[in-house]
């Protein structure tokens, strides 16, 4: 019977092309608006490392106290660390893995002297960074803890830069000139570009169009004076100027992440963090109460408002538009179905049970939804391409059409239209055949 | 075949109750051709829709082919309509989107019949009404008489035990009406039970038996002087 109902639905829709077009347009635009905004929302709100996010923690130490807080901080300690605490926490090494990190922007000098140096982006990190974040390597690996200690001139490249410098070949063991010094390539990452850039939300806001081209040992970067290319926040003016002055100041500019595998490890780390604060307080560094934080990654991203509020608002508005379109479609379906009351009466007289009428008309609604969904697919694709007109570039570039979005668009269109068709279909199935046949 | 006993149908509003049928009794035997006559508003069509299980009744009993139908649910009523009853309407009630073949196919679809059997029955029914060559035509391309023949073919395709006809010639000119009536008589001679509602005394006179309804009740026409003369005269003309 399914084929029969589909055939009837197609005939019916062809009979009133204007009405059909209106419904398809309503569904198409409604679904496209919601799916376009959803694609953006999905890109910015997804868990960037779902298999491990509950084990990754960001510690915060209240080194500024109440006086250093800005209005709207809600009693939150600074969201980054100063150099002193970051290095102290690294030395203590209380987590399974941990890394302090800051954003760098060195220059790469190509081996070909005819080519100009290029500015690249990246991070100064500790060796455990790669294992902690399960960063995938195409060639080689990260550097060792010894390289951290020895402040070795080693570098991990991302695959894009490796493509540019070495035509994508295995470059492990080769050297790269960074800011005039040779660095030995120890590893090449395999298209690793997590969004949001969860390991350094403070300096990137989570989303940035800047490339992560290179990773260099943290202390090496400090030693050679690779300055911070991210945010620096200070509660007071540093006593000394320059990069060294920054390291001695209470300004915060270093992100920090630790891997803690279970509740006991989390509790132990929190104890350590609080103990560290108390020690510093005893030493006279602080004179305010303990106010540390230790959040897992999802809570941290939430507290940092990584998902832009305008993205959430857009999604709500678009879903509202979809509802309006569906209400309109429901009205059009109702008008269309009830106009066929005499046909329903005849079918009922000839032996169609209510369920058969219900199924026939629900399938018709489903076909309207499917056609609207196909239009919605095209409009969603156009919407995703054009989303940069209304959203910031770094957010807009994240939105993309993939198979799951295509399937979801069709499903939403069909299911939503069938939901919209429930009432009109119910009314159609309740048509009194006797009344219709008498009135003819 | 069709037996109604003390059947009533009441339409209720907040302020008034209207009896469409009251203490209605009728017994149609298998193979009979019964004409149901009566003035407008007498309850003829209400009787026919209840007989065809298109409407429920308020009180009394109705046995169709031995089944008491008052307690049946929608599915069971639909199944009986589909398998035991054929309808012929005054306004033909063909579905305009469907061609002749597809219109005749409608009741067979709901019976879950396989395509080859459906085709055989449809073409058989169309041949019987003389419209096999018009199978691909749409209702709008046919005359009124042809449309009614399609409606009869649709009713016959399912081989129903009971044929219910509501003013089957009401929308046709005399010549077409005669053709349709001859077809109904032929179907009756082949054994079908036919109950036909009509205003037309000439048509009623062609039936085996006339049942007259006035104010929702079956009355004996011979005892009612208002109708006796007209119907007797018409019947005499037809039979003569």
Q: Biggest sheet of chain B, open or closed, and with what strands and sense?
A: 6 strands, mixed
CATH topology of chain B: Rossmann fold
Which whole number gives the mean pLDDT of chain A?
A: 89
Helices of chain A, by number, come to 17
* Protein chain pair with the most extensive contact, residues per chain: A-B, 26 and 30 residues
The CATH homologous superfamily of chain B: P-loop containing nucleotide triphosphate hydrolases
The main sheet of chain B orders its strands as 6-7-8-3-9-10
Report the total helices of chain B: 8
Would you spell out the secondary-structure blueprint of this structure?
The complex is a heterodimer of chains A (440) and B (240).
Chain A: H1 2-15, H2 17-45, E1 56-60, H3 83-92, E2 97-104, E3 107-109, E4 118-119, E5 122-125, H4 128-132, E6 137-140, H5 145-149, E7 154-157, H6 159-166, E8 175-178, E9 181-189, H7 201-204, E10 214-217, H8 218-223, H9 242-248, E11 255-259, H10 263-282, E12 293-296, H11 297-303, H12 309-338, H13 341-349, H14 354-386, H15 393-396, H16 403-429, H17 433-439
Parallel strand pairs in A: 5-10, 7-9
Antiparallel strand pairs in A: 1-11, 1-12, 2-5, 2-11, 3-4, 3-8, 6-9, 7-10, 8-9
Chain B: E1 2-12, E2 17-28, E3 33-37, H1 44-51, E4 59-64, E5 67-68, H2 74-84, E6 85-88, H3 100-110, H4 115-128, H5 144-157, E7 162-166, H6 174-189, E8 193-197, H7 201-205, E9 209-214, E10 217-219, H8 225-239
Parallel strand pairs in B: 3-8, 3-9, 6-7, 7-8
Antiparallel strand pairs in B: 1-2, 1-4, 4-5, 9-10
Protein name (chain B): ABC transporter ATP-binding protein
GO molecular function, one term (chain B): ATP binding
Pfam families (chain B): ABC_tran
């Amino acid at each position: 019977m399914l084929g029969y109902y589909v055939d009837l639905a197609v005939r019916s829709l062809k009979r009133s092309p204007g009405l059909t077009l209106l419904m398809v347009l309503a569904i198409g635009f409604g679904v496209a608006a919601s799916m376009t905004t959803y694609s953006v929302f999905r890109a910015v709100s997804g868990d960037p490392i779902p298999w491990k996010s509950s084990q990754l923690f960001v510690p915060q130490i209240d080194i500024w106290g109440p006086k250093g807080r800005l209005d709207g901080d809600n009693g939150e300690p600074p969201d980054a660390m100063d150099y002193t605490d970051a290095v102290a926490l690294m030395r203590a090494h209380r987590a399974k893995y941990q890394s302090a990190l800051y954003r760098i922007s060195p220059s790469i000098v190509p081996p070909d002297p005819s080519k100009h140096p290029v500015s690249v982006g990246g991070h100064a990190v500790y060796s455990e960074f790669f294992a902690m974040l399960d960063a995938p390597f195409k060639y080689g690996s990260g550097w060792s803890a010894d390289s951290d200690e020895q402040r070795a001139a080693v570098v991990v490249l991302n695959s894009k830069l490796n493509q540019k410098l070495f035509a994508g070949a295995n470059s492990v063991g080769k050297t790269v000139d960074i800011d005039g010094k040779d660095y030995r390539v120890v590893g090449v990452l395999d298209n690793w570009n997590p969004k949001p850039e969860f390991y350094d939300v403070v300096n990137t806001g989570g989303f940035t169009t800047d490339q992560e081209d290179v990773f260099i040992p943290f202390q090496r970067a400090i030693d050679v004076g690779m300055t911070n290319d991210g945010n620096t926040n200070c509660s007071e003016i540093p006593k000394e100027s320059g990069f060294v002055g920054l390291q001695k100041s209470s300004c915060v500019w270093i992100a920090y992440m630790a891997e803690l595998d279970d509740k006991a490890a989390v509790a132990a780390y929190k104890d350590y963090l609080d103990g560290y604060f108390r020690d510093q307080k005893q030493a006279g560094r602080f004179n305010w109460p303990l106010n540390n934080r230790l959040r897992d990654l999802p809570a941290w991203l939430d507290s940092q408002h990584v998902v832009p509020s305008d993205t959430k608002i857009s999604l709500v508005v678009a879903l509202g538009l979809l509802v309006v379109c569906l209400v309109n479609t429901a009205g059009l379906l109702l008008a269309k179905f009830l106009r066929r009351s005499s046909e329903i009466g005849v079918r009922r007289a000839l032996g169609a049970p209510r369920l058969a009428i219900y199924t026939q008309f629900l399938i018709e609604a489903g076909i309207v939804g499917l056609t609207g969904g196909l239009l919605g697919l095209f409009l969603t694709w156009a919407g995703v391409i054009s989303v940069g007109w209304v959203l910031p570039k770094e957010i807009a570039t994240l939105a993309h059409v993939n198979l799951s979005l295509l399937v979801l668009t069709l499903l939403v269109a069909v299911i939503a239209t069938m939901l919209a068709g429930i009432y009109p279909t119910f009314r159609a199935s309740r048509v009194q055949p006797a009344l219709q046949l008498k009135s003819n | 075949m069709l037996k109604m006993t003390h059947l009533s149908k009441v339409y209720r509003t907040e302020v008034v109750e209207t009896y469409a049928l009251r203490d209605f009794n009728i017994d149609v035997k298998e193979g009979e051709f019964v004409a149901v006559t009566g003035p407008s508003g007498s309850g003829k069509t209400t009787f026919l829709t209840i007989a065809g299980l298109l409407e429920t009744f308020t009180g009394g009993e109705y046995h169709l082919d031995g089944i008491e139908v008052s307690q049946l649910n929608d599915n069971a009523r639909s199944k009986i309509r589909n398998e035991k009853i054929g309808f012929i309407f005054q306004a033909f009630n063909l579905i305009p989107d469907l061609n002749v073949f597809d219109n005749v196919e409608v009741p067979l679809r709901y019976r879950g019949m396989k395509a080859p059997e459906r085709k055989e029955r449809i073409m058989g029914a169309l041949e019987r009404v003389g419209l096999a060559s018009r199978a691909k035509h749409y209702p709008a391309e046919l005359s009124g008489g042809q449309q009614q023949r399609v409606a009869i073919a649709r009713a016959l395709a399912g081989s129903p035990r009971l044929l219910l006809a509501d003013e089957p010639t009401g929308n046709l000119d005399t010549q077409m009406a005669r053709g349709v009536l001859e077809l109904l008589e032929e179907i009756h001679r082949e054994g079908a039970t036919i109950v036909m509602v009509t205003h037309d005394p000439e048509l009623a006179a062609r039936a085996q038996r006339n049942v007259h309804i006035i104010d929702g009740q079956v009355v004996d026409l011979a005892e009612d002087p208002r109708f006796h003369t007209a119907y007797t005269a018409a019947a005499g003309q037809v039979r003569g």
